[in-house]
TrEMBL record:
Residues annotated as signal peptide: 1-29
Domain Peptidase M48: 42-226
Keywords: Hydrolase, Metal-binding, Metalloprotease, Protease, Signal, Zinc
One GO process term, biological-process aspect: proteolysis involved in protein catabolic process
This protein's name: M48 family metalloprotease
Species: Qingshengfaniella alkalisoli
InterPro entries the record matches: Mito/Outer_Membr_Metalloprot (IPR051156), Peptidase_M48 (IPR001915), TPR-like_helical_dom_sf (IPR011990)
Cofactor(s) this protein cannot do without: Zn(2+)
Length: 450
């Protein structure tokens, strides 16, 4: 069943990539920031809101775009895209959950399907590309499509979108606040969040954050949100659990993106909370100070030996420090605790490849294939899997996997070369051959459109 689904998905990705060729270099430079622990923390914050909206708790995932501007959006029912800058700007879990609640309301209210029709009615290729892109290309390490939207790639069609989305945004605010109240989250955090966007309204239309194009003006939204919040019944809100996950996710992201000095200056000397130790470990890794990074990661795993994401962090630290056997052991424990987490499996496979023995390469291929089955749009994973195939003499599979990775990153010319190579190496009609043919056809079609 998997093999029958993947070619269609890759075809959509290749079509999307052809649209990306039209984007500015700045737009194409953005990427997704993938990390198992960070994504888990964000998803834990989103899950109660999904339940409150009547949606499956585990179907919709939060993904982070490496962009320091403030933006968030959905274009399908399976993913919420949030810029790193918005996560770092949030002052507490409730503010970030207000973002999630708003975007979840778009899903629950069916706005995605209507936006897709709006995109088609805009009569621009960009509008159609938005729907195609984020429906299929969200798991890659290169999210140019999401970046294209965030960078205003839909600018030519924005007036057509606004005629529809302003009413949708207002209803999403109200629905989102209801979800927050049902989840025990203070709905007034929605108003606090909008404080961050007010400054955008004073900027010229040339410099304005794209968030403000498809969302109602902050003053109008704040007034409506405040009026609605005043009508909600008073209650006590305890968001302790969400604040814990927020601290872990935001802290890890901040320590990775910001300088080690910035992290050190904002942590109290005696703070040994989980979030603080995560930040200290990542900041030390970035420095690099591998001894300190290992020490803080070891403190986390000793404190919570059944937390797979602490072992995942330990594996990352050990692998970066060149302690391959220790990295394998850490990732193996993480995978044992979270056997269905593809980002952990990807790290485990990468560590096994680093051991570079015949047995470890074979095991790595098996682990990476499992990870790919759960997250087929992870470009770094595909690179590692292609290397594993090549090391075992499976050159055809290495070629098609490389073609997939290149297609995901928008390099269709190179993807076409590797797809053609795979077609000459794989049995006609095999799953790998079909995948290669799909990429080759999509690349040819994209070349004609250019």
């Amino acid at each position: 069943m998997l093999s029958s689904l993947i070619p269609a998905a890759l075809s959509r990705l290749c079509l999307v990539a052809s649209l990306l060729m039209m984007l500015s270099p700045a737009a194409q430079a953005r990427s997704l920031l993938r990390d198992a622990g960070m994504e888990h923390g964000l998803n834990m914050m989103a899950q109660p809101l999904l339940v409150a909206a009547g949606l499956p708790a585990n179907r919709t995932k939060v993904l982070v775009i490496n962009d320091m501007s403030m933006n968030a959006f959905v274009v399908d029912s399976s993913h919420i895209f949030v810029n790193a800058g918005l996560i770092l700007k949030a002052r507490n879990a409730a503010e970030l959950q207000a973002v999630f609640a708003h975007e979840i309301a778009h899903i629950a209210n069916g706005h995605f399907s209507r936006r897709r029709l709006n995109a088609q009615s805009s009569r621009t290729v960009t509008g159609i590309g938005i729907a195609l892109a984020l429906a299929a290309g969200v798991g890659t390490n290169n999210a140019e499509v999401a970046a294209g939207l965030a960078a205003g790639a839909a600018g030519a069609a924005h007036s057509a979108f606004l005629a529809h989305t302003r009413a949708e945004e207002a209803s999403a605010d109200q629905s989102g606040m209801r979800y927050m109240a049902r989840s025990g989250i203070d709905p007034r955090a929605m108003s606090q969040l909008l404080d961050h966007f007010e400054a955008q309204e004073a900027m010229s239309s040339v410099r304005r954050n794209p968030y403000t194009y498809s969302h109602p003006l902050s003053r109008d939204r704040k007034r409506a949100v405040a009026d609605y919040a005043a009508r909600l019944p008073d209650q006590d809100y305890d968001n302790t659990t969400a604040d814990y996950w927020f601290g872990r996710a935001q802290g890890k992201l901040s320590a990775y993106l910001r300088s080690p000095g910035y992290t050190a200056n904002r942590l109290a000397a005696g703070d040994d909370s989980d979030a603080a130790l995560i930040q200290r470990s990542v900041a030390a890794l970035v420095t690099p100070d591998y001894t300190a990074a290992q020490r803080y990661a070891a403190m986390l795993t000793a404190r919570s030996p059944d937390d797979p994401y602490f072992h995942d962090l330990a594996g990352w630290v050990e692998l970066e420090s060149g302690r391959v056997d220790a990295a394998i052991a850490a990732y193996a424990r993480a995978a044992e605790l979270a056997p269905y987490e593809p980002l952990i499996l990807a790290g485990y496979g990468r560590a096994l490849m680093a051991r570079n023995t015949a047995a470890s390469r074979t095991q790595a291929r098996e682990v990476l294939e499992t990870a790919r089955a759960r997250d087929p749009f992870n470009a770094r994973l595909l690179r590692d899997l292609a290397t594993a195939y090549a090391s075992e003499g499976e050159n055809g599979m290495a070629s098609v996997t490389t073609a997939e990775r290149l297609a995901l990153t928008g390099d269709l010319a190179s993807a076409h070369v590797h797809a053609q190579r795979a077609l000459g190496q794989l049995p006609t009609g095999s799953p790998g051959w079909n995948r290669a043919q799909d990429i080759a056809r999509a690349a040819q079609s994209a070349g004609k459109r250019r």
